[in-house]
C-alpha cells in the first residue's frame, strides 16, 4: 500500500513540473499519463490489489490523481495554443520601433531663418509678395522707368502671354506693395525667391533667394543703416568680423553703398575666396530714393528711409564655405544630410 502511495506522490510531482512549449510535447504528456496504456490507467489498475476495507479511501485518492493529471493536460493545451498564437503574430508591440532617417532643413532655409530672426529682434516684421509681378511693382515704381539703362542690370524673364508680367528680379517689389499701403513707419524684411535670366554656373543661377529690408520713418539716417547692418553682421558671423562700406549705384537708393565683411576664411590676409583682397561683398544698401517715396504716395519731405538687400545663397556659401551654388538645387542627399546637425 505504502508503495502505491509513494508512486502516486512521485507521479504527481512529475506532472506538476512538466512543462511544454509545443503542441507535440502536450501530446506526449497525454500519451504518457492519460493514454490507454498511460501511467494513470496503470495506477488505477492497482485498485484490484487494495484490501477491501481500504478500497473506498484509495478510490478517492486515485480519482483525485486522475483529475489532477487531466487538469494539467488542459492547462498545457491552453498555454501552448496562446504561445503558438504569439509566434504566428510577428508584430511584437513591446519591441522598440525602427528608426526613421532624420531629415534636415535645407541650408538656404537655415540661413534665411537665421537672418529673419536677427532682424526680428530689431523690430523688423516679415512681408511677402507674389513671385509673378507686373512691370510697375518690379521696375517703374523703383525709379526704373521704361528704357532706363539700369534695367539691363537684371536680365528678366517675361511672361509671353502678357509682356507686362514678369518673374520678379528682386523682392523690392514687396517693399513697393508695403509702401503703397501707406501705414508708417515701415520696418520690414522681405525674404523670397527671385529670378534672373543668367547662365547657370558655380556663382550664378537663374533663380536664387533674397532678403531685403526697408525702414521708413521720420529722421532715419545713414547712421541708422550702418548700425543696423553692423548688428546683423556681428550676430550672423561673429563679433570679430569687420565691416566696410563702398560707394555704389542703385537706381532705388541715394546715396548707395555695397557692404563688405572681412574674409571669414583668411581673416583679412587674402585668399582665393576674397580674391586676395581680404574683403567679401555681402550686400547692397542705401537711403531710399525720394522718387520711390513719391511714387508710393509717401511724403518725401517728411519721411526718409534706408533699404538693403542680400542674396541668401551668398551668405550661406560664406557661412558654410560652400564653393558651388548649384549644389543648393541639385537635391543631392549627400550634400543635404550634412546639415542634419544644424537644425
Ligand atoms: Zn580671404
Question: What would you say this structure looks like, in words?
Answer:
This protein is 39% helix and 19% strand. The protein has helices at residues 2-17, 23-34, 39-45, 52-88, 107-121, 135-138, 172-180, 222-237, 290-295, 312-320, 333-336; strands at residues 125-126, 132-134, 165-167, 186-195, 207-217, 243-250, 253-262, 279-288, 304-311. It has a seven-stranded mixed beta sheet, with helices on both faces. Strands 2-3 form a two-stranded antiparallel sheet. Helix 1 (2-17) runs parallel beside helix 4. It is rod-shaped and about 130 Å long. The two termini are 83 Å apart. The site of zinc ion (ZN) has 8 residues, from loops. Residues 263, 265-266, 270-271, 273-274, 278 line the site of zinc ion.
Strand order of the largest sheet: 1-4-5-9-8-7-6
Quaternary arrangement of the chains shown?
Answer: single chain
Shape: rod-shaped
Order of helices and strands: HHHHHEEHEHEEHEEEHEHH
The small-molecule ligands in this entry are:
zinc ion
Quantity of strands, as a count: 9
With helices defined by DSSP (H or I, 4 residues minimum), what is the helix count?
11
- The pLDDT mean sits at 89
What structural class do helix, strand and pairing data support?
A: alpha+beta
CA distance, first residue to last residue: 83 Å
Helicity, in percent? 25-40%
